[in-house]
Amino acid sequence: MSETTSFGFRDVDPGDKQRLVDDVFARVADRYDLMNDIMSAGVHRVWKDALVARLAPPRHSALPFAVLDIAGGTADIALRIVEGSSAHVTVADVSREMLAVGRERAAALGQDQAIVFVEANAEHLPFADAAFDAATIAFGIRNVPDIEAALAEAFRVLKPGGRFLCLEFSHVDVALLDWLYELYSFNLIPLIGEWVVGDAESYRYLVESIRRFPNRVRFAAMIERAGFARVSVRNLTGGVVAIHSGWKL
Which CATH number covers residue 41? Predict the structure, then answer.
């Protein structure tokens, strides 16, 4: 791990980033999913559905299928996975405020038996080796102070033959879309955050963190260094987001 890590456009001590990230999500947890709807005009739902479609959880199977959803506190991914499937999902998130939202949502939808919530740091997962059939993380990896440690942990807790799927913002590769996306992100998203959540700074950080995140090639290389094989990348919406996939073989 390097001597410093990024918190948005700032370089901070790795020990400080987790506290700063925790503060962000404590402030935005109650309206996090609402903000996702507003900021993406609902398109984040399509991206998440694409992630779960690639996971392809078994619909009707007597065999257990255990999924670990990392940094999935509000259960947006977990609820998609368990809907109509025989999967069981463990949601691990370092933010107790985000987990509280997820528990409430799961209970309201009658899915609190299929989803378990655990307060846990992605860099130090409290699970046994080879405990899960699949691991997912959506829009969370860029908030982890030590991304390589989190990838190594995801690899460790997967069974041989298990799959890792990561949905994350990427780098737009369409010229005009890139310009429009940049304009929208830096000028309007913080304003929307102030209007909806009363917190422009948290959303300014989230926008900046996207720009500091490694591009598709570099992130794929990080996944491979963690031990994953058959690493692939699928761009969505002109590269606004990407789904990275890797297998523990």
Answer: 3.40.50.150
